[in-house]
Amino acid sequence: MSHPARETDHAIHDQFTERWSPRAFADTDLSKDALMPLFEAARWAPSASNNQPWRFAYGLRGDTGFAKIASALVPFNHAWAEKAGALVAIASASTLERDGVTSANPWHAFDTGAAWGSFALQAHHAGLIAHAMGGFDAGTLAEALKLPEGYVLHAVVAVGHQGDAAGLPEMLQAREAPSPRRPITETVSHGAFL
Ligand SMILES: Cc1cc2nc3c(=O)[nH]c(=O)nc-3n(C[C@H](O)[C@H](O)[C@H](O)COP(=O)(O)O)c2cc1C
């Protein structure tokens, strides 16, 4: 699959441009068996001192876990994400313990972002779609999912089978396409940051 908005300046594996974040979910179930390989991919992400600070809590469509996560989404996201097969809350432990001493882990968010990247690519490889959302009420979600002390919520991800864009509200139908990226020269510089 190629898309005009996704032409690269340098040759890379197609997986990077073929993955995108649709909002049109098929309104179908997703089994636990189909979901677990995505967590498995996330599990193998690199992390500082192999601390693996990421944590995931999920719900499958129709169960109470799904309802709890969905209830924390902002209305804009709830409108389309409720048709996903699974909702996944991503958090991380902001501290680490070494020799009985607890200290801050400055890399917990960085590492958890890497894990989410692997999760998203594995979803793509499995023929699923995964769409991350920062639009949720963190207090509601923390309480609903019993987030332990010292953990930070980062995102909710809707996972499932892609559906027809015609099922989306009109305003979102126009946005249902792979997005471009800024030129690489605005992101990468030699010798010092731009
Ligand atoms: C941490 C994070 C938060 C996001 N929050 C939302 C959101 O609340 N609602 C939404 O529709 N999309 C959200 N997105 C999706 C981004 O808008 C999308 O990933 C970005 O535009 C790039 O498009 P692509 O994933 O299709 O390549 C979020 C993505 C990330 C990684």
List the helices and strands in order. Answer: HHEHHEEEHEHEH
Please identify, by name, the CATH architecture.
3-Layer(aba) Sandwich
- Spell out which ligands are present: flavin mononucleotide
Detail the poorly predicted runs.
Answer: none
Q: Count the helices. How many? A: 7
CATH topology: NADH Oxidase
Number of domains: 1
The H-level CATH homologous superfamily, spelled out, is NADH Oxidase
Structural class of the secondary elements? alpha+beta
Straight-line N-to-C gap: 33 Å
Range of strand content: 15-25%
Arithmetic mean pLDDT: 96
Percent of residues in helices: 25-40%
Spatially, the strands of the biggest sheet line up as: 1-2-6-5
What sort of overall outline do the alpha carbons produce when their principal axes are compared?
A: globular
The main sheet comes to: 4 strands, antiparallel
What can you tell me about this protein's structure?
The protein is α+β, with helices and mostly antiparallel strands. It has one domain (29-164): NADH Oxidase (3-Layer(aba) Sandwich). 31% of the residues lie in helices and 20% in strands. It has helices at 14-18, 32-43, 64-71, 75-81, 108-125, 138-144, 170-173, and strands at 54-60, 86-93, 95-98, 101-104, 129-133, 151-160. Strand 3 and strand 4 (101-104) form a beta hairpin. The two termini are 33 Å apart. Bound molecules: flavin mononucleotide. Residues 20-21, 77, 132-135, 155, 178-179 line the site of flavin mononucleotide.
